[in-house]
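Human:
Take a look at this sequence-structure pair and walk me through the tokens.
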Amino acid sequence: MDKIGRELAQALAKPGEADWAAALQALTAELVADAPYLTADTLHDFRGRAKAARYLAELSARRDARTARQAAECKAIQTVAGAWHDWHVLATEAAGNALGDTSGSLCRLLAAIAERSLTLALDECRCIAAQWRKESARSDIAHIEQVKRTVRRAEPPTAIGEKHRA
């Protein structure tokens, strides 16, 4: 989390929204790249990075609907990952206080709820990251098409000296 905090502090220390947007884009790109490999061991850190991305997105969410949606999606990641973490901690605490009898019905119930919450959290995080990946690809394609149109409209370059011959 220290790295994320430093990146967030650096982005916020810069004066322009373009810097915030670049920092948000970098954070979401990391989340998209890491989502397919999420596990119980990595979910808590993933949640922390989603939190940093949410804060950056909220800086310009009022002026941009896509960024506002992204902030809401980051909050959803925080919520589902936080719910899993709470159940996981509770199940672990209950098992630790069961005096070695972790087969009790309460311990089994809490472990099952924690496992189900993990599955839901991983699925939701991966689903949101997949949406971001698709949006990024569409944005890249739109940019490429715009560049192609601009190039087609541009006047072909003339060879040196052709203007002088006419």
